[in-house]
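yo, Oxalate:formate antiporter is done. seq:
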Amino acid sequence: MNDSDRFVISSGITFSDFIDGIPLDLPNLLLIRHKFEECHFNMHLLLEYVDEEILKKLATDDVQGYGDFCWLDFSEEEYLNQLSGQEIAEILYLGHFKDHLKQPFYRKLQNQFVYLTGDDGWLNKTYYQSWEPFYSMLGAVISRKITNQREISFLNFRKKKIVPAIPGKILRSFTNDMKEGLVISIEKANRNRSVIEIPLWIVGDFYDMDSMATEFEYLAEHQRPDGKIVLDRKTGEWQALTQMQVLA
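structure:
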């Protein structure tokens, strides 16, 4: 998490995860880099976009197969036509370099997000106008991934139970760890009839996800977690455990 430039580098969260988890309606997406075929076209920018109806189809498409996939949201098409040459150049720069010349939030477009990836779900860079949707999205994504894990009992497969979304205030407890670089490990979660414990390790700042995965596997094998997110299955309530609480 880069707080000053308002972006997050992530691995393990796909476009579909993002769209399902964001607690805001996105009326339109300006597609800066993509391979989606069913689009509208804006003559002023010479770029394509999708509205809310087409977005539902885009969210189920093979986005990872596109390679580069970059977009930002906007409120109305008429505002695209008001963008200056400088603003258009900044938007094109986002898609080409997956970086910003200036913070990529435009008053005319009223955009909340910028989503940049060359390999969706493996290495994503996402800008947030406000951090609240990020925490809500992350809490929803983690709970969905936990829910989708198969629970195996000694006798049979248990019926899948929906795991409640993790409240943003719980995840905000780990903001400083996210700024350092944090792995939230669904794979190594401990679950029984009473609790679900999701361990977290601080791994550092990586842009190379292969190197990050190598570092994470070493840390997970040789040291205790730096924190945990714990669900009390009886009450349905989540809590955050810091490193000191884990050691205790």
